[in-house]
Amino acid sequence: xxxKGYISMVLHAHLPYVRHPEYKYFLEENWxxxxxxxxxxxxxxxxxxxxxxxxxxxxxxxxxxxxxxMLSDPLLQERYIKHIDALIELADKEVTRTQLMxxxxxxxxxxxxxxxxxxxxxxxxxxGNLISGFKKFQDSGNLEIITCCATHGFLPLMSVNSKAVxxxxxxxxxxxxxxxxxxxxGIWLAECGYFPGxxxxxxxxxxxxxFTDTHGVxxxxxxxxxxxxxxxxxxxxxxxxxxDVESSRSVWSMNEGYPGDYNYREFYRDVGFDLDLDYIRxxxxxxxxxxxxxxxxxxxxxxxNQKEIYNPEKASYMAKEHAANFHFNRVKxxxxxxxxxxxxxxxxxxxxxxxxxxxxxxxPQFIEHFLRMSSDSKSAVKPITPAEYLDxxxxxxxxxxxFSSWGHKGYSEVWLAPQNDWxxxxxxxxxxxMVELATYYQNQSSDLLVNRALAQAARELLLAxxxxxxxxxxxxxxxxxxxxxxxxxxxxxxxxxDQIKRRRIVPEFLQALEYHDNIFPDIDYRVYxx
Amino acid sequence: xAIAKNxxxxxxxKTSAVKEKSAEKKGVSGAxxxxxxxxxxxxPLKTAKAKAxxPLKTEKxxxxxxxxxxxxxxxxxNAAKMPEPETVKKEEILKTVKASSAAVKTKTADTAEVxxxxxxxxxxxxxxxxxxxxxxEKNGAVSKTAVKDEKKSKTPAGAKxxxxxxxxxxxxxxxxxxxxxxxKVVVKTxxxxxxxxxxxxxxxxxxxxxxxxxxxxxxxPESYGKNxxxxxxxxxxxxxxxxxxxxxxITEIKNTMGAKEFNDAKRILRLYDGxxxxxxxxxxxxxxxxxxxxxxxxxxxxxxxxxxxxxTGDFYKMASSNDVAMPSQRVSEHSDEKWMVxxxxxxxxxxxxxxxxxxxxxxxxxxxxxxxxxxxEFSQLISRGISSETLSSQFxxxxxxxxxxxxxQRKFWMVLNTELIVYGATEPDASVTLMDKPIKLRxxxxxxIRMALPDGDVDIPAVGVSADxxxxxxxxxxxxxxxxxxxxxxxxAL
Lengths: 530, 494
Fold this sequence. Notes:
The complex is a heterodimer of chains A (530) and B (494). Chain A is α/β, with parallel strands linked by helices. Chain A has 19 helices and nine strands. The longest helix of chain A has 27 residues, at 312-338. Chain B has four domains: 2-83 and 223-325, Immunoglobulin-like (Sandwich); 91-216, no CATH class; 337-407, no CATH class; 419-481, Immunoglobulin-like. Helices cover 41% and strands 18% of the residues of chain B. Chain B has helices at 2-16, 31-42, 47-53, 64-69, 85-98, 108-123, 133-138, 140-153, 158-172, 176-188, 194-213, 247-257, 259-264, 345-352, 362-371, 376-387, 390-408, and strands at residues 228-235, 238-244, 266-273, 280-284, 291-295, 301-309, 315-320, 324-325, 419-425, 431-434, 437-439, 446-452, 456-459, 462-465, 472-475, 478-481. In chain B, the strands form five sheets. In chain B, strands 3, 4, 6, 7 and 8 form a five-stranded antiparallel β-sheet that branches. A four-stranded antiparallel β-sheet of chain B has the order 11-10-14-15, with no helix packed on it. At the A-B interface, helix 1, helix 3, helix 8, helix 9 and helix 15 of A face helix 1, helix 5, helix 6, helix 7 and helix 8 of B.
């Protein structure tokens, strides 16, 4: 059967730059290790399986520059290995500990097998650098890797300083090229945050497409003929793809609600909290504070605290069922849409990558099954990458998309609220200071120390601009950490600024900063110059 | 759902501090505004309380319409007092330093740091006390020797760290640029030796790290000493504006106006609707305010000016803002001629795009849906699915769960589990199986196995065989476990 429409599944993989060489153990570094364990490696594994089975799947992923930097960082790679080694040891103990309880024992063995596999994949297969894994599938034509703003800066709130916006884009493109050996065709704007005019900057750096939330395209002017079911061109010629509501709902709605299924693994019951402290102590925070370890024995079951034991086979079966349901609904959707369109509709379904595997433990299996079903020659809806769709339909309506984001209420409120609005006074000031320095020094004789200080100032600015900090403040989670990171980077920037201006750079200070905030080693500060 | 929940919470806090004088009369538009006015009626102006509760800034607003029509003199609209920004910062810092035990769970890193910071202070008493950028400038020359001293005297990490320093000092002497080049290569060789990395880590840490960086957890500058007014678009109906004014600018204005005039003057924001010179409205500012939220109209353009307005109506400008264009909240009325569509077809496409549900934004719909998800807990984690950064939301969810659990504890609960420890000893070179599975002996021949023990009867045969396989000893404990559960509730003393 000839396909009637297409789906672009887009996984946005991002973590803020958290790397603390000054500590032996740093809790927030676990964000990366958990994501590697539960999302990145499982995704690479399903890609591998699909390739092995000859499935010509298509999927799009953004690997943010901060994530690329962390995945390629030797210190963090080493720490991940320590992390997984400890988990293997714990899983091994768990297999022994649960030997009198067959159903628990089965789950413990599952973890032991998975952790051991993860270690082998990480060390043996990808030599500690998962980027090589993703690159492999990009080279095979199955995965389109796109970039994201350099430090996940939320561009709409940066737009008073176009150089600051430009730097987020240029440094992202440079980072992509450095890690993946070519230039990116597309970008995931951090938080899906689009502000009219920014497409001009994307154009300047060769980026051909980006994404907006539904209303970004739907509220475009003039109105988009195909709604969100075909890309539109901005005046600059860069394409915008709007998010489809229905497929997002299909994953999250209360009726279908795949990840909330009775049989899926319960996230909130972890042995880190459930087991005897003396026993679990080596695997939690060194101060004896209980944290999630990743070993969880229960299924979601129901609303009460009475949880049943997780059954991996049953959960896998459900993931397949849900993938079939998702596929069936997408087929219906494109069939319906094609009645109103004179071209094959495209459904764009972006999600956070870490949703799959980390939160929804069976998520990667769901993706695997869905890609398998939709890649079948008989499927009426085919997976496609945005770039391929643009190749197929190079002619598109020209509109100006609306300012939008995928945050709560659809605009800037998450990042501009009473909890976090105080940061902009400083962020905007230091961006302006960076432009001032770069403009002054771009044509000066290059004193090595000054150039290093300028490069480091740019790093501090970029790190301060990560939307993650404002997001955490808004959501009232690890606020102290987010506030500290924001203040630290601003203060570090301001110190460098003063030192540069007074021509009194303190080499030890600079060196320490270069060591701590070592992202983007080959950064060129002149991107900020007017 | 973390976002929605938090969002709501904050909304209430915000509103409790909003002084809404005559919202109804002025025809406040928009859902957000009316929600606010209701809450404001319930709780008129409790700035002090808001301050105490949380270092949140108060949100104020005017409606552009009302501001425009009312007489400039009496146009004090919704001027709630704003908690001073300094308060916010101080409280935050306090939090970091205190590291109360309740907060320890999520912010252990900070705790650890506080400890270390204290430690460092002790070892560095011979040094000038102040830290941070000011100091580094002044002591630029001194710092080198200070660092050297530190190298000699300070050995918090013990002998190990010391040798580490020696080792890398030699390696690391070339300039940073060279080092960076080396690093580039290292990136390609995926795994560096862990030892080497720790060494580098402690080296920099001991030499410079704590002194120069960790101690920069200082306050941010109050002012950058220049006149500026920045306006940011929050959503189609709200802008946020903040400003900075150099002290001398105010002095100048004061001198121009004369002290008496100045005292009577109002500090105002002048909002130009559509950027036209004549079409403006004034917002009177509270004394300590350094930022403001302003309610405006979608699809309009605005420019702001900050200044003093004298009693006679003269305006003394201190700063002008960037101009902003508000986004649209609806589908464009403008359809492209080249793409003329048959009647009714766009409406269908729009509906299929989810447009009919787009009243607020697609994210809201997602969140509403997520809120209704089956397991209660799950909805908390969805929020991130909608607005990204899944991982850190784990901590949002975690916190929410903790809060829930605290609530649950009002209903008394107890959990009891049993584990069985089987341990013993034999010849170190013997082999032992427990329930037919070989177990590892410690070098001294002892062994210990820990097992979760369910209800029921179980035999646990341990078999030891000598190294020469001639002697064999079997020991089999029979374990019987039964759990009784009873729950009683005393009548409460009423």
